[in-house]
Amino acid sequence: MTQTLVAALMWALVASLLIIRRKRADRSITYAAITIAIAMTLNVDAIYAAVDPILGGTNIATLAADALLMIGLFFLGRAVMHTGEYRPQLVRAAVSRPTLIASLAAITIAFSFIDRSTTTTQFMADLGNQPATAIYSIINFTYAAVVIATMMILAARQYRNNHGIQRLPAALLTLGSAFGVMLCLAVLTMDIAHVTGQITLMRAVQPAYSPLSLLTFLLLCAGFVAQPVVRRARHYARRRSTAALADRLEPLWQRATRVRPGLSHAEPISASDDPEDRLHREIVEIRDAMIDSRITFTITDAARALLEQAEQHLVGQVQSTLTTEPAQALDDVGIGAPYHEERPS
Question: What's the whole-model pTM score?
Answer without folding.
Answer: 0.74
